[in-house]
Amino acid sequence: MTEILDFDKQGGLITAVVQDAKTRRVLMVGYMNREAFDKTISTGHVTFFSRSRQKLWTKGESSGHFLVLKSIATDCDGDALLVEAEAVGPGVCHNGFESCFYRTLKDGRWAETERRVYDPDAVYGVAVSSSPSTEPRPSGSGRS
Known about the structure:
Mean pLDDT: 89
Number of helices: 2
Structural class: mainly beta
Order of helices and strands: EEHEEEEEEH
Number of domains: 1
CATH architecture: Roll
Shape: globular
Largest sheet: 4 strands, mixed
CATH superfamily: Phosphoribosyl-AMP cyclohydrolase
Number of strands: 8
Low-confidence stretches: 130-142
Distance between the termini: 27 Å
Helix content: 10-25%
């Protein structure tokens, strides 16, 4: 099943763009190694490889905001994935937004152009930083 995918090009990882299966909105970008890809297929929950923590993480494992796999496609080079998923919960972003893409460049400055849809402190129990990371931070916050 993974023979068409080129895990070698990016050091064992493939970029995975996650899109809402209904709205087609891009929710987040993560990385999958072969094991994360296989776990995503076998469980139906989107799983990534954390580059900072060097281990697998299933989106939603600590927040309950899972991504349920609906379909998966690859690009012509086999080095990127388009993952269509149903987001379970009010938002995907660990900063409390529906999507990790809540900032827009306006007049040369980044501006938050959306409102938070949930309180991340209530979900994760620790203060949220303004880090642009889409992965759980290695500090042990376990945000997912």
